Amino acid sequence: MNQLPLFITIRGKPVILLGEGDAADAKRRLIERAGGLCVDEENGDACLAFVAIENVDAASDTAARLKARGLLVNVVDQPDLCDFTTPAIIDRDPLLIAVGTGGASAGLAKMVRQAIEHILPARLGELALRLQSVREAVRARWPDSADRRRQFDAALAPGGPLDPLNPDSADNVNDWLNKDSAVPASGAVVIDLHSSDPEDLTLRTARLLGQADHVFIDGPIGADLVNRARADAVRHIGAPDGELPSGLVIHLRLRHEETDD
User: Fold this and answer.
1) Residues 102, 108, 114, CA angle at the centre, nearest 5°?
2) For residue 170, is pLDDT > 80?
3) Angle CA 80–84–85, to nearest 5
4) Which contacts of 147-155 are long-range, i.e. CB under 8 A and separated by 24 or more positions?
5) Beta strand 95-99 with 88-92: parallel, antiparallel or unpaired?
6) What number of other Cβ atoms are within 10 A of residue 223's Cβ?
7) For the packed helices 203-211 and 145-156, what is the interaxial angle rounded to 10 degrees?
8) What is the phi-psi region of residue 177: left when phi exceeds 0, alpha when psi lies from -120 to 50, beta otherwise?
9) CA angle, 156 as apex, 209 and 165 as ends, to 5°?
């Protein structure tokens, strides 16, 4: 991962925009869509700047001047000069999905965005708003954060009552919250891998990694595969030994397939 993806709140805040033409107009629309205020270079309160100047030397000089003031700068079509890039966006307000290539190919990001856009229901943002509205009720129902996460994992799974790909899931939030729900099983699951390539993961393994509280890494399993687990899942090196930690424990074992001599 060459960039840290972040969502920055700019509503009501100044953002420097320099340049003219179609590229500058596109950045202006993006800033205003997020509620930001487009200002010129003299503004001293801005923290972000977009440079849409066609002349390469002029754009480079302008970017250097702004960076010297401590601003984070995006220079259109010059990724080497960018402190940040703007991704292709799928907007299901308040749900946002950003697809970026670090400036490598805006066209590729657009095509991926279109592919994802095609499968996401129009009401997905409504589901997010409904979940926000019951946040305190969910905390009261499941005070333990691990229990809450497991409940959400089960409800949001494919075919679950809050399946994000079901266009009517927003209508199910109250029923899900008020029904007697069983917390998904804790305990240990042993997964034998025959490859450390994350592309070889089965759907079941990928789902379990996404739900795990603890991951035991038994063998030369690369970070690319282990990082398919939740970022806040605790990593352990080696096989479990003794009493297991609470929550869902995944024991990844690398087992190479036998081959004939």
Assistant:
1) 115
2) yes
3) 85
4) 147/183, 150/183, 150/184, 150/186, 150/211, 150/247, 150/248, 151/181, 151/183, 151/184, 153/184, 153/210, 153/211, 154/181, 154/183, 154/184, 155/181
5) antiparallel
6) 10
7) 150
8) alpha
9) 110
Q: What is the Cα–Cα distance from 230 to 212, expressed in whole angstroms? A: 7
Tokens of residue 223, six digits: 């970070």
Residue type, 17: L
Give the pLDDT confidence score for residue 145 in this predicted structure: 82
161-187: string of b/e by CB count within 10 Å (b at 16+)?
bbbbebeebbebbeebbeeeeeeeeee
Neighbouring-strand partners of residue 75: 51
Distance in Å from the first CA to the final CA of the chain: 39
Which residue's structure tokens are 């754009």? Answer: 59
Has residue 174 got a pLDDT over 80?
Answer: yes
Per residue in 93-133, pLDDT tens? 999 999 999 888 989 999 999 999 999 999 999 999 999 99
238: left (phi over 0), alpha (psi -120 to 50) or beta: left
